[in-house]
Amino acid sequence: MNKFKSLLLLTTLGLFGISPISWAEGNFIQLTQQQFDNIGIKLSKLAPASHIPLFTAPAKVVVPPAHEFIVSTSQAGLVIKMNASVGDKVEKGEVLGLINSPDLLTLQGNYLKTVGALKLASATYNRDKKLLKEGVISGRSEQEAFSLYNAAMIEANEAKQLLQLAGLTAADVKQLDSTGRLVSQISIRSPITGRVIERMAVSGTHVDPMSPLYRVANLDELWLEINIPQDYIDDIKIGDKVQVENTLVEAEIKVLGQSVNPENQTILSRAVIRDNPSSVRIGQKVTIQHLQTSDAETYLLPDAAIAHNDGKTYVFIRDKGGFKISPVTILGKQSDGSVVTGNFSGNEEIAMNNAVALKANWLGLGSGE
Question: In whole angstroms, what is the distance from residue 125 CA to residue 141 CA?
Fold first, then answer.
C-alpha cells in the first residue's frame, strides 16, 4: 500500500511538471510560480472559529408545548367548510372552519329562556324591594325574591358561557340577545397566530364533541431534543451551544435530564433554537455538534489543507519562494473541516488544497509514507 501511494504521488507530480528534488528543504518548500500554477493551489486567510466541536449526537426538532394547540369543536355536528390547509399561516381569531350543529340551537334556546327568566326575576325583586320600603310586604318575601333573582342570574351566566365554549363570540351572543335569531353554524377559530401543521378533518364528515380539527403552532421558537451519550455527560452544561450539522442553526442548552435511558444509555437534553428556525422542520431528525469555547485562538480549515505525518498534523503557509510548514493541533472535526490551533498571527495565507502534493515534496516523495 505504501509503494502504491508513493507511485501515485510521483505520477501526480510528474503530470504537474514538478521536480521534487531540491525544492523541499527542512521546514520550507521552494516553489516557482509556474509550479504553483501547475498544482492549482488555492490560498486563503485563516477563518477564526468561535467554538470547538466536541462530539455529535442525534436530535429531533419539536415545538414547545406552550406554542402548540389542538383546535377542536365543543359540539357535535357536520363539517361544512375547512378554510385552512397544512402550512398556511393563520392569525389569532381567524375562522378555520364551519360546523353545522343542532346542539348549538339547543344551547341558544336554553340561553334565551334563562335570559327571560332572569328579566322576570329581576323585575319581581325590584318590585319587592319597593314594597318592602313601603311596608307592604315582609323582609322574608323580599329575601325570597332576591334568592330567585340570584339563581336566575347564575343560570343565565352559565348558559352564556356554554355558548362561548361552543364557539360563539361576545358579539355573537350580543346579537342573539338583541334579535333572538338562532344560528346553527359554529365558527372554528385559531387560538394563536401561527402555522397549520396538521389538518385532521375534511368537509362533509360528522364530528363528535371535542373532536380535533387542526393542529396549529407558533414556530418563532423551536426546541431540539438531544440524546446525549452518557460518555459526554460531564462535558456538557446549561448554556452550552450546539449546532445542527450542515446548517447555520445554533441552539442553547436549557435543560439537562436527570436520568439515563436504559435502552440506549443517553440523557435527554433540550436546546432552544432562537435564530434561523426556518432552516429546520418540526419532527426532523438531525445530528448536532456540541460546541465548546476555548481560550486559545482557533481556526477552521478544510481537511484538504491539512497534512498528517508521524502522528502530527501540518499546514502550509505561503512565503516568498514557496511554503513554510507549520505544525497545528486539531481540536475538533466539523462537516466542513477541522478546528485547529497553532502558532499563527491570523494574517497568514494558507494552502487550502493539495496538501497531499505539498507533503510529498516536503518528505521527498514518500519517505514519510
Answer: 9
